[in-house]
User: What shape does this take?
Amino acid sequence: MRDTSKNKIIINGPAKLNGRVNIAGSKNAVLPILAATLISDKRSIIENVPVLSDISNMISVLKELGKEVFRDGDTVVVKPAKELKSSASYELIKKMRASVLVMGGLTGRKKNIKVALPGGCAIGVRPIDMHIKGFKKLGMEVGVSEGFVELKEKKLKGTRIYLDSPSVGATENLIMAACRASGETRIENASVEPEVLELVNFLKAMGISIKIEGCIIKVKGRKKFKKVKYKVMDDRIQAGTYLIAGCLPGSEIKIKFSHPGVLKTVIDKLQSSGASIKVDRKYINVKAPEKLRSMDITTAPYPGFPTDLQAPFTVLMALADGVSLINEDIFENRFMHCPELLRMGAKIEVKGESAIITGTGKLSGAPVSASDLRGGAALVLAGLAAKGRTEVYEISHILRGYDNIDMKFRDLGADIWME
Ligand code: EPZ
Assistant: This one.
């Protein structure tokens, strides 16, 4: 793991990016998969695990719960726990919301589970009511008190669960919980994001029968599981971020990513903005247009436009000709990067869940602060496009999801470093 005490990224722009970039394994697929190792007492080998602080945090949670976890490069081995524990402390949970996924992993293994309730975060309140409703339907008694969620198992039984909206985390937690329930669980209006499908594939490799029909996920519970070795797909949000970087003025890059299909909505939008994008077996080849055209996006569950790429897209809109519109339909507060972009010369008006961006064609370097992971990545992209020196502070947010971001952009020709 790199030294994360470094607290700013400095960029002398503008950069014209050129060359190839590799994409790390998918953070948001590895996190639920690590939680899913709690379901069984057999060892799990997970390959293509990115070196990121969020992943180290999840490994710490597993260790706190008693699992033995070893990391060798991008491979993580999770061995059975000598004694599996049933409670995860606030100290660990507060570092990363995804730790709530251990509730699903522990369901059916422990009679009383106690996991600290995560608070809100910069992008929204982020309640876990749908997770709780689903656990109750599966036969758990759920209470929330003194900052903890307590789950008591009565009789875990397959059931029909309808999610009010296709929450990624609730779907993942409930699929895992259903793995040990008797009979079949049917989750309707489930999330079918590629990362959820990665979890499903991992669980299938463990021997669990799971069927997906549109937005319905059917899980047949069992008590015995197989050892598993699973290679996680590359990170589509990281690939999408570099794809957007390849559309910055004067850039032309190759992104090593072999699942271009999962980025179709993003690629379509970038093409409509004038970018040239060609996909071959291994690479997505992207060339920036002479002049970016304005574009409108509305975030939506997969296969709609991913909310995680909304902030990076804002930077292209700030550089484009004309007026662009963003509707953020997933999180209620995901425009924290906008006031920072204003400081770099962007023209953005945020009204509730929308942002109206009037392209100015240029940005200028400035000191700015990251408030969340993707908003932080947007500020790095803005710094690459801007004339002059940009200093991005609070980069611990960025390092949660982007490995070696400075080195990768340096290899693409940017004057960027961490200090
Ligand atoms: C996952 O978060 C991702 N995190 C997020 O990635 C991503 O932005 C998000 O899905 C949407 O795609 C991980 O996979 C670790 P949700 P999650 O439950 O599971 C509301 C990144 O930058 N909701 O689908 O927390 C919620 O408040 C991140 O890598 C409820 O109201 O997302 C939000 O508005 C950040 N009640 C919306 O649904 C619930 O019980 C979507 O949340 C659950 C969610």
Q: What stands out?
A: The pocket of EPZ is lined by residues 28, 31, 98, 124, 126-131, 165, 167-170, 195, 307-308, 330-331, 373-374, 401 (CB under 6 Å). The two ends are 16 Å apart (CA to CA).
